[in-house]
Specification:
DUF4222, single chain, 68 residues
Amino acid sequence: MAEVDRRFKDHRGITVHVIRWEPETRRVIYLREGYDHECFSPLEQFQRKFTELKDCHEPVNAIPADSD
């Protein structure tokens, strides 16, 4: 089992937080906001229905040079 900390969007546009990957069972374990229990999905299904969210950080060159 491998701990993970990544965010994905499902096929309906809802964000989930992936917390674990179980290579033995090929399952992705994730949390849905407002839901009390962990959810899981077979890897193949997860890859079809979820898209990883990339970092939303501001690019370094967008910060003014004279900012403190």
